[in-house]
């Protein structure tokens, strides 16, 4: 509830300006999609016929640079109810069952080449230490302590594999940017994790976690830019979107906007982004739906 004004501002900032003025009265966020959000939604459940089609032909080019249009979706056909709340993500025909029924910890790998060797698709979660990665993993799988929170800097860094519904992996990568970590630990992160990204053929996408409460950090930008340069599909997952302001008075939507501005050079087309909070559950179901469409497309 508390987040609505933030979302509203964000939505107005980024997306409503793309729509014809006649449609803006239905904003903000009168999204029928939200109420029909279902974990067991069958493929093709997002129907463009439920609401009158909004013609965006004038702005279609621009829309492509703002919204994440998934495979199989015509940008000209996008309607407001296909956009996931609190994100720039359009749901397309590949969206499917997003319910987490079971999760198993499959083990930790010290080296990328020790990771499970099977064909299951996987999503890697990455972010600065303390960004809320463990909390988000626990929230996604609805377990309190699947991922251990508050790991200590400088400890051996591991790749942890969680098997979800016996069909796909959620992967917890070592956090980066420990404030007090020695230089050697940072270098370790870099070769270790980059090796994983460049060699993991079953990687569907990286969820790059960015704390929405702090102004853009260079290390997060470097990471996003490195992924962009290496053509590794990324979704930016803004965390802790349950505060309307931080102690310095900055609002999450301002930080989110400035992060997007700063990665523009490496991403001519906006990567998908979504606001989440493990504290309130904001964005959880939406993120799972987004992951389901990426996974189903990958599987095809
Ligand atoms: P990690 O180091 O990235 O795994 O981060 P953790 O999940 O251990 O969380 C770091 C700190 O952020 C802890 O104090 C959490 O309680 C806090 N935190 C995590 N998620 C949220 C969130 O959604 N909202 C708020 N307000 N705090 C959070």
From TrEMBL:
Entry's family note: Belongs to the TRAFAC class TrmE-Era-EngA-EngB-Septin-like GTPase superfamily. EngB GTPase family.
Domain of life: Eukaryota
Gene3D superfamilies: P-loop containing nucleotide triphosphate hydrolases
Keyword DNA damage set for record: no
Signal peptide: none
Protein name per Swiss-Prot or TrEMBL: GTP binding domain-containing protein
Record key words, sorted: GTP-binding, Magnesium, Metal-binding, Nucleotide-binding
Pfam family, one: MMR_HSR1
EngB-type G domain sequence ranges: 119-297
GO molecular function, one term: metal ion binding
Cofactor: Mg(2+)
Chain segments annotated as coiled-coil in the UniProt record: none
């Amino acid at each position: 509830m508390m987040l609505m004004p933030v979302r509203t501002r964000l939505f107005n900032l980024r997306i409503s300006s793309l729509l014809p003025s006649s449609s803006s009265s239905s904003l903000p966020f009168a999204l029928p999609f939200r109420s029909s959000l279902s974990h067991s939604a069958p493929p093709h459940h997002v129907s463009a016929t439920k609401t009158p089609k909004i013609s965006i032909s004038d702005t279609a080019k621009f829309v492509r640079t703002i919204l994440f249009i998934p495979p199989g979706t015509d940008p000209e056909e996008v309607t407001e109810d296909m956009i996931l709340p609190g994100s720039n993500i359009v749901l397309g025909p590949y969206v499917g069952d997003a319910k987490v029924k079971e999760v198993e910890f499959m083990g930790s790998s010290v080296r990328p080449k020790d990771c499970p060797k099977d064909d299951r698709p996987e999503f890697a979660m990455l972010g600065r230490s303390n960004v809320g990665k463990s909390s988000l993993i626990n929230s996604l799988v609805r377990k309190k302590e699947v991922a251990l929170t508050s790991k200590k800097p400088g400890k051996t860094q591991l790749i942890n594999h969680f098997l979800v519904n016996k069909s796909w992996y959620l992967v917890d990568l070592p956090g980066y940017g420990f404030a007090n970590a020695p230089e050697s630990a940072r270098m370790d992160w870099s070769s270790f994790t980059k090796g994983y990204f460049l060699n993991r053929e079953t990687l569907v996408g990286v969820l790059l976690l960015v704390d929405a409460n702090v102004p853009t950090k260079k290390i997060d930008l470097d990471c996003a830019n490195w992924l962009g340069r290496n053509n590794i599909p990324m979704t930016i997952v803004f965390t802790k979107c349950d505060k309307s302001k931080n102690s310095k008075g900055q609002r999450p939507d301002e930080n989110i906007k400035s992060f997007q501005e700063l990665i523009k050079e490496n991403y001519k087309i906006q990567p998908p982004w979504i606001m989440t909070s493990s504290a309130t559950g904001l964005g959880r179901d939406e993120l799972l739906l987004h992951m389901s469409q990426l996974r189903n497309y990958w599987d095809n």
